[in-house]
Automatic annotation (TrEMBL):
<feature type="region of interest" description="Disordered">
    <location>
        <begin position="1"/>
        <end position="25"/>
    </location>
</feature>
<comment type="similarity">
    <text>Belongs to the GSP F family.</text>
</comment>
<dbReference type="GO" id="GO:0015628">
    <property type="term" value="P:protein secretion by the type II secretion system"/>
</dbReference>
<feature type="transmembrane region" description="Helical">
    <location>
        <begin position="224"/>
        <end position="243"/>
    </location>
</feature>
<feature type="compositionally biased region" description="Basic and acidic residues">
    <location>
        <begin position="14"/>
        <end position="24"/>
    </location>
</feature>
<dbReference type="InterPro" id="IPR042094">
    <property type="entry name" value="T2SS_GspF_sf"/>
</dbReference>
<keyword id="KW-0813">Transport</keyword>
<keyword id="KW-0472">Membrane</keyword>
<keyword id="KW-0997">Cell inner membrane</keyword>
<dbReference type="Pfam" id="PF00482">
    <property type="entry name" value="T2SSF"/>
</dbReference>
<protein>
    <submittedName>
        <fullName>Type II secretion system protein F</fullName>
    </submittedName>
</protein>
<keyword id="KW-0812">Transmembrane</keyword>
<feature type="transmembrane region" description="Helical">
    <location>
        <begin position="173"/>
        <end position="193"/>
    </location>
</feature>
<dbReference type="InterPro" id="IPR018076">
    <property type="entry name" value="T2SS_GspF_dom"/>
</dbReference>
<dbReference type="GO" id="GO:0005886">
    <property type="term" value="C:plasma membrane"/>
</dbReference>
<feature type="domain" description="Type II secretion system protein GspF">
    <location>
        <begin position="71"/>
        <end position="194"/>
    </location>
</feature>
<dbReference type="InterPro" id="IPR003004">
    <property type="entry name" value="GspF/PilC"/>
</dbReference>
Length: 405
């Protein structure tokens, strides 16, 4: 039902206002009849209403998280400069090249123009604006400091998306190594080994065990390569569906990822950075610490840190200091705990959490760069071992034949 609710349409309209002056514009609604009713509520007598196109639920370019981050930054900049909110929406919509994003901004603008507050307008699109985003906007509207909160949200979204991009980069390299290794090995087994096999058939001698093993694998690949390919695709699909449907499987997968050398350390540091960045943003916005920790748990990105955050929330709600709660979980490094301790004692917790986030974001950045440099020789070693092993296997009978002669 929620999905259908989001599939609204944009209608262009022309009509007359209360003073009888001609006016026109756009409005989002589920149907033309509802669009006309909404216009009449606004004191406009519509003379012409046409559907412009289906928004968000239909085709068009996909809205990415970075589109939302850019929208937030543009809105924050314009509201700080004193541009009225509705005008800021229009300028932002006109400046975007993504039709779906333009429709989304237009829907929000029309809702706000119709009297809905900004936070509630955003809540109509949970796919793009999560509870954390909407709650921070709500806090800004209530406190009269919306431009300041939008700036904080924009910084938070930019930092979060940059961190996600680094994690994807770190994860893509091992996948690339495995993919290249599989493709090269498959080509050698299906195309190259059979050529040598024809030569060996005329030797009339028993082949070395290593060579025979490679030939057996090659014969299986030649005959059943499509089964192997379909099996790999089916296994990948089954695993992805299992992770999508089963919370227990996702939790086990999260724990397993943290134990992978180098990759686990990157994910560990990124989770700490995300924890600190989210808590810093929400706490600075005036959200009570216990409520802020709810948002942090939702944005943790890993079950280990989600469970740790929930334990911290329980401890803090009973009056325990944040630094002691973090230390008791056993997952936060001493440096992060110490920085939080200084923040609590000095009354600048949000500032210290921001510094912790920046430190670990830089750590992730450096580790990803290091992994990039490390993966290049690893790729060479892996491919060299595979190709070299197959070449040795193919030339072993020729070497033995030479020694006999």
């Amino acid at each position: 039902m929620a999905e259908k609710k989001n599939k609204t349409s944009i209608f262009t309209w022309e009509g007359k206002d209360k003073n009888g002056r001609s006016t026109k514009g756009e409005i989002s609604s589920a149907s033309m009849a509802l669009a006309k009713a909404e216009l009449r509520k606004q004191g406009i007598n519509p003379t012409k209403v046409r559907k412009k196109g289906i928004s968000l639920g239909g085709g068009g370019k996909k809205i990415k998280p970075m589109d939302i981050a850019l929208f937030t930054r543009q809105l924050a900049t314009m509201t700080k400069a004193g541009v009225p909110m509705l005008q800021a929406f229009e300028i932002t919509a006109d400046g975007t090249e993504n039709p779906s994003m333009k429709d989304l901004i237009t829907q929000i603008k029309n809702d706000v123009a119709g009297g809905t507050n900004f936070a509630d307008s955003l809540r109509k699109h949970p796919k793009y604006f999560d509870d954390l985003y909407c709650n921070l906007v709500h806090s800004g509207e209530q406190s009269g400091a919306l431009e300041t909160l939008l700036d904080r949200i924009a910084t938070y979204k930019e930092k979060t998306e940059a961190l996600k991009a680094k994690i994807k980069k770190a994860m893509n390299y091992p996948i690339a190594v495995v993919a290249v290794a599989v493709i090269v090995t498959g080509i050698l087994l299906v195309k190259v080994v059979p050529q040598f096999q024809e030569v060996f058939a005329g030797f009339g001698a028993e082949l070395p065990a290593f060579t025979q093993m490679v030939i057996n694998i090659s014969e299986v690949m030649q005959e059943w390569w499509w089964v192997v390919l379909l099996g790999a695709i089916a296994a990948g699909f089954a695993i992805s569906k299992l992770l999508e449907k089963s919370a227990k499987a996702r939790d086990q997968f999260d724990r397993m990822l943290l134990k992978i050398p180098v990759i686990g350390q990157i994910l560990d540091k990124s989770a700490i950075a995300r924890f600190a960045r989210t808590l810093s943003t929400t706490f600075a916005a005036g959200v009570p610490l216990v409520e802020a920790l709810d948002s942090v748990a939702g944005a943790a990105g890993n079950v280990v840190y989600r469970e740790a955050t929930n334990r911290i929330k329980e401890d803090v709600s009973t009056g325990q200091q944040l630094q002691f709660s973090m230390r008791n979980t056993g997952v936060f490094p001493a440096m992060a705990v110490q920085m939080v301790s200084i923040g609590e004692e000095s009354g600048a917790l949000d500032e210290m959490l921001g510094k912790v986030a920046t430190f670990y974001e830089d750590e992730v950045d450096n580790m990803v760069d290091g992994l990039t440099s490390l993966m290049e020789p690893i790729i060479m070693v892996v491919l060299g071992t595979l190709v070299g092993g197959l070449i040795i296997a193919m030339y072993l009978p020729i070497f033995q034949l030479g020694s006999v002669v």
